[in-house]
Structure formats: C-alpha cells, structure tokens
Design brief:
With 452 residues, the protein is mostly helical. Helix content is 84%, strand content 0%.
Length: 452
Amino acid sequence: MVKTMEPMTTGSIWKRIAFFALPILLGNFFQQMYNTVDSLIVGNYLGLNALAAVSSSGSLINMLIGFLMGVSTGTGVVVAGFFGARDEKNLRCAVHTTVAFGLVAGAVMTVVGMVLSPQILQWMDTPQAVMEQSVVYLRIYFLGSLGNVLYNICVGILQAVGDSRHPLYYLIVSSLVNLVLDLVFIAGLGCGVGGAAAATVISQIVSAVLCLFQLARSREAYGLRWREVRFHTGMLGQVLRLGVPSGVQNSIINFANVIVQSNVNAFGEMAMAGYGAYTKVEGFAFLPITSFAMALTTFIGQNLGAKEFERARKGARFGILTSMLLAELIGVVIFVLAPQLIAAFDSTPEVIAFGTDKSRTAALFYCLLAYSHASAAVLRGAGKAMVPMVVLMICWCAIRVTFLSIAVPLTGSILTVYWVYPLTWFLSSVTFFFYSRKGDALNRNVFGADAA
C-alpha cells in the first residue's frame, strides 16, 4: 500500500518545511556528488582537455533543459494548488497533461541537441583542442534527454504533493549507478568523455523509470494511468501560463551563463578547467538554496490553495532566512578551503589559481543568491511567475551580458568575468526586497507587506 500524502496545510510550519526540504537537500547532494564524480574521474583519468570539454558543456546543457524544467516547476505549482484544495479531478488532469508534455518535449530535445551541438559549441568559442570531445559528450548526453525530462517532471509532481522522500531514494540509486558506470566505462574500458556521458544518461534513465513506477503504483488522484496520458487543452494552458515564465527565465539566464562561459573560454584551457572545477564546488552551496526554494514553492502553493494566508506568510519568512543562513555558512567554508577543493579536480597550479580566484570572488555573497532564489520561489508558489521572470531576466541576463560586453574588453581580466555574478545577485536581491514591500493583496498574503 502506497502511503497517502498529507497536504502541508497543517502542523508545525518549520517542521513541515524543514522535513520536506531535507530529502530534497540530500537528493541534491547526491545529484551534485555524481556530477562531481564525473569531473573527478574525467580530470584524474583523462586529463586536462577532457575536463575542459566536460566543463564547457555544462552551461549549454543547462540552457537547453532550463525551459523544460521551468515548465515542470509551473506544473508543480498547479499540482500543489489542486492538492492543497483537494480538487481531485483537476489534479488528475494536471498530472497526465504534464507527463504527455514531457514525452513530447524529451523527444524534441533529443533531436535539437544532437543536431545543434557542434554549431552552438562553435558560437561559444570552444577551443579546437577540446571541440571534438565536447561534441561527443553533448551528443551522447542528449540521447538521454527523454529520461532526464521525465525524471524532473515526475519529481516535480511527487514534490508538489508533499513526497520528497522517494525522489531522494531514486537519486541515491542513480548516483551509485553513475559512479559504478563511470569507473567501468572510463577507468576500465577507456571510453573517454563518451563514457562519462553514457554513465550519466543510463543513470538518468534508471531514476526516471523508478519515478514513473512510483506514480503508476499510487492509487491516489495524482497516480499515473498511462491510458489517461494526453493533452487536456484547458489544463495545458494553465500549466504553461505558470511554467513558461519560469522556463523562459531559466533559458535566458542560462544563455547569459553561456556568454559568461564563452568569456572564460577566451582565457584558455587552464581557465576553463579552473572555472569548471569551481562550478562543481559551487554546486554544494546551491544545495540549501534549491532545496528550500522547492520546499517553499510547494508550501506556498498548497497553503494559498487552501487559503491559509497567515501560514503562508510565516513559512515564507522561515524558508528565506534559513536558506540564506545555510548558504552563507557553506560560502565561508568554500572561501577558506578553495585551493584544496579545486586541487581535488586538477593539481595544475594555474588551474588551482583560476578556480581559487573565482571561489573567493563569489563565496561570501551566497546569501544574496539564496535570498533571490527563495523570493522567486515564494512568488512562483503564489502563481505570480512573471515577476521573478522579469527581475531575473533583467538582472541575471541583460545586465550580465551588457557588463561583460563593456567591461571585459576594457580590463582584459578574468576577474571582471568572475565579479559579474555577485554584482547581479546584489541587484536582484535589492529588487525582490523592494517588491516584497509593495502592499498588494498577494504580498500581504505571502510576505506580510504593509499596505502602501
């Protein structure tokens, strides 16, 4: 018997958010671990060029899947609202529409990724020394797009109904599969970066199958019935209305990150490897940020669906403050231990220097990153997805690209590239803070803002 999920509309607020966020935190930890394992094994067994090839592909992968993952976030908001309101008919419609969208989107992403990978890598100014390996890695990675998309969509559904434990279990399984296959394909069979990509693809397919099985075996209204998987026109519109802004936001921000990566690429392979190693370390700082953001979106969505406005306000304050505190503590650790952490990926002194400089530029500002993500999550959970889309597109995309276009040619320094992140985190945080003070009905319900 599958345990029925209870809405997050009753009980201790901090316990419901914290105990919901904890499995997500652990799941994200394992996700980051198996991403890091890829880089560690690639860096130590295949060398600097292979590490640079894998690292330079990250921004492109995030850009292409960002839109689809944003749509799944929108679905989570819709599902959470219907679940909190106990509207079983619309809940069932939302789940099956989303799975149908995932099947189509995964197929499209496979074709687009396979065809366009070489051209986009050229646009990113990827050095010829690593181009061939980068193309191989990306094309194999995109062969597994369907598993990647379906896994994330199913996780969004499960988390929206308050189940953050099963995604954790499945992520642990896929992490172990990835680790074993990395060692077999790279260290054992000598498959190169293609082996690293294949290990990731197989592990993602495993986690997707497990999530689909969990939904299919549930007897609740959110359970998956394959004969009901289709597009429900009205529900698709509602899902896209909340998901498209998040998806566009993710894609545009990740496009800006591609521009940042291309600026890093211009400083050579050592810079690429050092920057790539830092991004793996930085991923651990994102753990509390993304965990509490997901928890907040679900908590706010369910409680506003149930019209528990005071509970939503208290949950928003707790989630934002806790996310900021945990992110900053991790930032301090990274700032202090940066050389040792970067050296774990590559012991070349130049690589360590590039990675350490990036770490010590950004690490003490993680609290700002946490505040922006948590505020955006609260607004998305409240169904106001356009606001974070506009704020983050302006601050994290338009301003980043403009700053880099003007400042990097003037300074000729990679430190200018590094500083673009904390500067834009500060701008988005200030914008969200002043927006939260706006006294409209929504902000009074989720931020407790005074009337203007």
